[in-house]
Structure formats: C-alpha cells, structure tokens
C-alpha cells in the first residue's frame, strides 16, 4: 500500500493511496486559508493557541480509542485459537470487511459533510475502525504470537519517537511532498512487480526490501501528517478536520505495523 500527495486543479493537495488498496480522494483544504463551511470558523484562527491545543487533543483522543480497539481485536485474533481458526476458515468475512473499509474511507475522505457533522462522523469512523481492525487482526493471525507482540512494541516505539520528533523539530516535513512522491512511486511499482512475480516464485529478499521501503515511507508520512495538525508549518489542517486528522495518522500507524510484520514476523507453522 502506498499514498502520495499532488496538486489538484483547485490548488489544494490531493492524496492518492495505491497498492493493495487503490483510491483517489481529495484532502480537506490544506494551507493557510479555509474555503468551506466558514460560518463555523469565523471567530477562530490557527494563531489562537487554545484552538490548536483543543484540535490536537481531539485528534489524539480519537486516535487512542482507535488504537485500543485495534490492539484488542489483534490480541483476540492472535491468542484465541477458536476465533483464529474461524476467521481463517471463512475468508468471506475478510472481503466483506475490506468492502466496508473501502466504502467508509471514501465517504470520510471525499465528502466533507459526513466527516464534519456529529454524530455521522463518529459513526462512520467507528465502522471504519472496526473494519480496519478486523483486516489487521486477520493479517496478524497468520504470524507467530511472539512476532506480533514484537512488531506491536516496535511500532509503538517508532510512532512515539516520530511524533515527539515532529513536534519538537524545526524541520518542516510538509514541504517534502516531492521526496515522498518519488519514494511512493518506487513503492508502488515495486508492489506491482512483486504481485506479478508472486504466482511464479516468492523472492524473500525482494519482499524484505519492499517491506523496509514501505516502513520508511509511512514513517515519513506519520511525521508529515503529525505536522499538518500543528498549524505552524507550510501546510496546515483545518481545526474542523479532527476526524480526517485522526484517520490519516491511524492509517499511517496501521501501515507501519503491517510492514514491520513482513520484516520481523515469522509465519505460523
């Protein structure tokens, strides 16, 4: 999986995810201005520190709940043998969950109305989180329990370190769109090559290189998305977009975990 940022016709940034999941969605109004639903933002500005703190607190509160749900489902699918056996024997649930994930993501990413208005934004985000947690849990069920725990720990340490660094550093990751785009194109075409080769021959070292590249790219995107929340960089996210902010960072963390599983995980015998 990979994603990229590029300019759209209206001057905003467009984020494209590609790979195993492919969709093209327009992100919500990045930059110093705001061009939608201004009636709720007329008295606020990113210069107001209290508004920024409330926004960041909302994003990370939602993110914490998402991660708790995901870790719980991963633990259930990993440690409970009957549940693990059932989900592996019924792949239809995987594809149903994949469809729900895809549809809810498109709604949240492309439609500003549903993601901004309570309670539809929280309902859609809850459905999205449960479907993504199911996909992650099913993936984890095919790996050794110790490997899953190791990857969870590594992911937690990496994400915490990147988040703290992004808040403290003076380096602006939001200005590195060109670098991220190039790396994502490499990741995208590498994924296509692997998909073509896999039916004929599995190449472990090539798969490992792909996983390492994916982990690096999405770690950089975690820094990118984190700084979008701060409001004092080249690009900033609207204070109204706390659902979209939590959604982006949650996906970055899930992708990092999935790539770490490919790097450090050992399959069950």
Describe this structure in words.
The chain has 269 residues and is mostly helical. The chain has one domain. Helix content is 67%, strand content 6%. It has nine helices and three strands; from the N terminus they run E-E-E-H-H-H-H-H-H-H-H-H. It has helices spanning 49-79, 81-89, 92-110, 112-116, 120-141, 145-168, 177-197, 204-230, 242-264, and strands at 2-7, 13-18, 23-26. Strands 1-2-3 form a three-stranded antiparallel beta sheet. The chain is globular, with a radius of gyration of 19 Å.
List keywords for this structure.
single chain; 269 residues; mainly alpha; three-stranded antiparallel β-sheet; 67% helix; 6% strand; globular; disordered N terminus
Average pLDDT works out at 77
Helicity, as a percent range: 55-70%
General form = globular
Please mark out the parts with pLDDT under 50 across 5 or more consecutive residues, or reply none. Answer: 1-46
Number of helices: 9
β-strand amount: 5-15%
Strand order of the largest sheet: 1-2-3
Task: Supply the number of structural domains.
Answer: 1
Alpha carbon gap, first and last residue: 26 Å
Question: How do you describe this structure in short?
Answer:
The chain has helices spanning 49-79, 81-89, 92-110, 112-116, 120-141, 145-168, 177-197, 204-230, 242-264; strands at residues 2-7, 13-18, 23-26.
